[in-house]
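Suppose you are handed a protein chain with no further information: no name, no annotation, nothing but its sequence. What can you learn? This example shows the usual starting point.
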Amino acid sequence: ELKNEYKRIRRILPFANADAAVILGSGWSDAFDLAPASVSLSYSKIRLLAGPTIPGHLERLTFCEYIGRRLIVFMGRRHFYEGRGWEPVAFPVYLAARLGCHSVLLTNAAGSLRTRLQPGTFMLIRDHINLMGGNPLLGIHDTFWGPRFTDQSCVYDDQVTEVVLRAARHASLPLSSGVYAAVSGPCYETPAEAAALRKLGADAVGMSTVPEAILAHAAGLQVIAVSFIANITGLSRKTTSHDDVLSATSAARTRMSAILRLIARETFDGR
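A reasonable first move is to predict its three-dimensional structure. Written in structure tokens, the prediction is:
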């Protein structure tokens, strides 16, 4: 189905190939203003991505150019917890790789597990812990995704991380780095689960991003990933809701846009 969907999308592309892909998580679509879209397509027109809307996801695939680079931008993602298997999650990465992208920028909203990561700040992902109970590379091996047993020792480029962190400091943007734990969702974590994640070494937790990172790395793409810290989880009995997350992202829209621009300039330019 990935191949068939690619062929359908390929017919409407405004350019023959692309340089980079951006996958926008909860609340990030409203902050994307790098460039106007040359072509925009609703997910309802893409079989693998069509379905009920998750609040905070605009559900559009757009194509644009920024700093001389051709971008494909997924304004919203599909999640493993939606129960439709791995193909809807994998398709954005598959399309990016088939179009010749050299890198992919992944974004999400996450819960902080550390007091140093306060709501309203941002965290570049240095490494991850996959606790989703599954892996998008399960099943019959497809050589498109590299070797059967793909190396995971350097999914996120340390050199790129340092370049982006340095640029953020110069721009006085609230950006740190850490380890992201991916859980299946759709439940938020219990206090005991949050405590266990901290002991495992996680700094933030969410329900996405890691599957795309695994696939992109396996396909040979450079992976950059950033979390917006929407709340602190498990450090008190305060409840968490998706509305709270979206409210936090809405309040941070200007800073989110600035982070997107900074990362795009530092990672997409000059390659």
